[in-house]
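[scheduler] slot 2 assigned
[scheduler] job type: sequence-to-structure, two independent chains
[scheduler] chain ordering preserved from manifest
[runner] begin chain α
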Amino acid sequence: MTSRVEHTDVGAYALGLLDDDDKAAFEEHLATCPPCAAELADLSGVAGALVGIGPLEDLGPPPSRGEAEVVDLMRRKRAADRRARRGTIVIGMAAAVTLVAGGLTIGTQLGDSGAPAVAASGQHNHLGPAEQFYADGTPVAGTGAAGVTGGLVIESKAWGTHAALKLSGVKGPLECELVSVSKSGQRRVMTGWAVPPAGYGVPGQPEPLYTHGGSPDPLEKIDHFEVVTSAGQKLLTVNV
């Protein structure tokens, strides 16, 4: 392999991003490098799907006049930009190969923000850890104060008990805690949070609150869970 040829040139070559000199040098190297040839064969199947992803616009030609140091700086910057561009292309192609190998869709519907709205597998990829755990589990519904609804997904752990909470029908400002209450009456704070004035799961703010926390008490020793405010008001009770 010559000093001007790199393994990362495989992705750039597959998409036709190499300049003529680099392309010729890489093709000469390709003839004697089975790993690069195999990688090129793997990438060729998805290159067409990535044709629309063009490289960043190249800098213009280096200045024809000026001090030698400036000319050298510009040349080195162009080389660095080219390497960074190739690295980005290779990463993108590797991701595409992974998606194709898993039978997933390469294209993803984008929202106005440009972030994927739905993962290729069909699952929503915007869920936080608590919401995902709650969505994947079997919720135990709680009994709430007026207008308050919610539930818990609970699991035993070697270290105690883990629970994810969904809570709706609360307005702020409030400070709340999720508490485990053992059969002996011992109370353990599992997590705490602040409810903003707009609240959660109410008109004007329909999204519920999701949060999770842990108790050192084993599940078999817990009698119930409570959501309480800092003023001592009980908002939700979940029996187990």
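[runner] end chain α
[runner] begin chain β
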Amino acid sequence: MTKTDKRRLKTRDKIETAMVTLCQSKVNFATVTAPKIAAAAGISRQTFYRYYLIPKQVITNLIDRHLNEFLKTFRLQNLTARKMVLQLMTIWRDRTTVLELVEWSDSRYEFIRALAQFNQQIATQNQVNLINEQTVCNVYAAATYMLLRDYVLKKPVDPGTGHRFTTAFNQ
């Protein structure tokens, strides 16, 4: 990796950390601007604009980067819908910050769109032929998002035991 690459990664990390800080500070996303993110990241406004056009793009790039990383995990497996959802739950449980940013920024549509494209790539990789593939992938992405939101972020409590369902998807 060159010196330039390391600087770019460091700047990207500063911007992403600033977004997380703003989210965790409960700043209304509608009030988040490039100058506000730049100030929180300790960079100039111009530097922010070299990387992103708008604040929401920080989050969509994070989503895309994580899904691209996940493709490596899903390569050449005999996947069923159940196995895929279980794997996604396990992976996203360790990356709740990205899901929190999605909720905070109201980027659900962008997340579902990216997840639908991910689903199509998985189907292609695994040579799965679906009738009306795009519709199936879109519906599956929306359902997966709802599961992720409810069982990874909210971690509901089992009324019978009082324990959180944090390991329900490891079975």
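[runner] end chain β
[qc] chain β: Residues 3-24 form the longest helix (22 residues).
[scheduler] slot 2 released
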